[in-house]
Amino acid sequence: MIRVFLLDDHEVVRRGLADLLQSGGDIEVVGESGSAQEAARLIPASRPDVAILDARLPDGNGIDVCRDVRAVDSSIRGLILTSYEDDEALFAAIMAGAAGYVLKQIRGTDLVDAVRRVAAGQSLLDPAVTARVLERIRNGVEQPHELRSLTEQERRILEYVAEGLTNREIAARMFLAEKTVKNYMSSVLAKLGLERRTQAAVLATRLLGRNP
After folding, report:
1. Distinct helix (H) and strand (E) counts, the chain
2. Contact between residue 72 and residue 64 where contact means Cβ atoms under 8 Å apart
């Protein structure tokens, strides 16, 4: 039996997914939640083979949950389920270690097949998208020396700061919790030896060639 955990803030959606997945006879839903924070605690304890994670939730997002869960147990495979086709979200999902990223418009039989394939160790991520992500990481090496201490995520947040985005806007763009963005921002300031966000914006504008 393939053990599955469901994360979606709509109970009707969870019920429908559970009925659909369990109708085949080889999949068992071992847990569910409508909260990102709760799911991050429950999923490792439930030890599913696959966690189906809604990308957007009232208290966070499935991509952050995937990252947190896999940090605890890397054998759990994350399948991001979303209503939006978005390169930034795809990038974030790959960086979080997700095994798949599918749209909610997917046919029921295709979703069941996706769960089986992910449980078997396959990846549902488009190789072309994965290649773009790897290229972005490689390009991150060729950057101003002042920024070389930053991680890929920190650099991207700094780029958004240079564009004038708020933490909330950055969180929405990157599919992160606002608190996570604040933590990243604190790390960026510490690594760059700066005290204020405005200083970081000025530095990024100069180094990255952003328009103020």
Report:
1. 10, 5
2. no
Cα-atom radius of gyration of the chain, to the nearest Å?
19
Nearest to 157 by CA among 140, 145, 174: 174
Name the pLDDT band for 136 (thresholds 50, 70, 90).
low
- pTM to 2 decimals? 0.66
Task: Return the structure tokens found at 172.
Answer: 């929405």
3-state helix, strand, coil in the chain (%, to 5): 55, 15, 30
Residue 47 contacts residue 31 (beta carbons within 8 Å): no
Cβ neighbourhood burial of 190 (10 Å; 0-12, 13-18, 19+): exposed
Could you tell me which of 71, 26, 22 has the C-alpha nearest to residue 44? 71
Q: Which of 112, 142, 128 is nearest to 207 (CA)?
A: 142
